[in-house]
């Protein structure tokens, strides 16, 4: 089965610091991780295409990622960053589309998880920016903490023309084994037709040293029931996943979590949903 990895990152610390990588617990990923490091792992795992996702709120990163996608036969799409609160966000999205590799721009993301305002997504200036993302035909990736899911629901209700892609299932508290209130909030988001989610980032929400697939299962099954396979997509979250698991282990865990699905349903999770939502080529 051909696999699309709908969520990974790259960074070169000589080009730009990743100021979020702080503390001794993150030391294993305070290093360079470039596309050449990912490619052999992805190819060995049967991955035929990937979506490269922004890491920092720096305008220069997105053009770099687009150029990288243009030179790669692995990266099929880029979820970039732009300042959603800027008055000229629509013009900026158009400019990005005209850059080398601009056709690979498939979505926009902002680190909402770091915003102190729990209703940041609902601010009028942010809503204007999100409307511009929708008008440009792009998706919007939600990187949020579990407690921010209610605001995501309100944002998605207010912008039915925009497809919201929930990264990492909204970061449920897997290590604590607490399914609620996360599950109820996730189901409220999934009830909206303009939302999809990524089966990604789960191993790093679990106990890094001792997690098992059994720990992940209640959260993955909740998402599968809420969204269905045609609105879920696999993502490795490489290299962040390396804090808890190798690339192969992450993919193997996702396969185990979806083992009871039919072949067509698994194809949706591991390829079809990402290709359809992000408009990736079928090659």
TrEMBL record:
Residues 4-280 form the Amidohydrolase-related domain. Signal peptide: none annotated. Pfam families: Amidohydro_2. Belongs to the metallo-dependent hydrolases superfamily. This is Amidohydrolase family protein. It comes from Streptomyces polyasparticus.
């Amino acid at each position: 089965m051909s696999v699309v990895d709908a969520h990974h990152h790259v960074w070169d610390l000589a080009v730009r610091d990743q100021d979020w990588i702080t503390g001794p617990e993150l030391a294993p990923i305070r290093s360079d991780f470039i596309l050449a490091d990912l490619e052999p792992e992805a190819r060995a795992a049967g991955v035929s295409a990937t979506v490269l996702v922004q890491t920092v709120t720096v305008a220069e990163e997105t053009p770099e990622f687009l150029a990288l996608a243009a030179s790669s036969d692995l990266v099929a799409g880029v979820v970039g960053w732009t300042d959603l609160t800027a008055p000229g966000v629509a013009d900026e999205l158009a400019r990005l589309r005209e850059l080398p590799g601009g056709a690979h721009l498939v979505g926009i993301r902002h680190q909402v998880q770091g915003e102190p305002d729990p209703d940041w997504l609902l601010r009028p200036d942010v809503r204007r920016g999100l409307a511009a993302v929708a008008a440009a035909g792009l998706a919007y990736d939600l990187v949020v903490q579990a407690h921010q899911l209610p605001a995501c629901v309100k944002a998605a209700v207010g912008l039915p023309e925009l497809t919201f892609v929930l990264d990492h299932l909204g970061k449920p508290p897997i290590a604590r084994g607490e399914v609620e209130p996360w599950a109820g909030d996730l189901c409220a988001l999934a009830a909206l037709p303009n939302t999809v989610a990524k089966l990604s980032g789960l191993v790093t929400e679990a106990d890094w040293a001792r997690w098992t697939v059994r720990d992940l299962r209640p959260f993955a099954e909740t998402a599968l029931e809420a969204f269905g396979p045609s609105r879920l997509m696999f993502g490795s979250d490489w290299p962040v996943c390396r804090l808890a698991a190798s690339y192969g282990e992450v993919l193997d865990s996702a396969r185990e979590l979806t083992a009871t699905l039919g072949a067509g349903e698994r194809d949706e999770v591991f390829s079809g949903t990402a290709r359809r939502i992000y408009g990736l080529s079928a090659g």
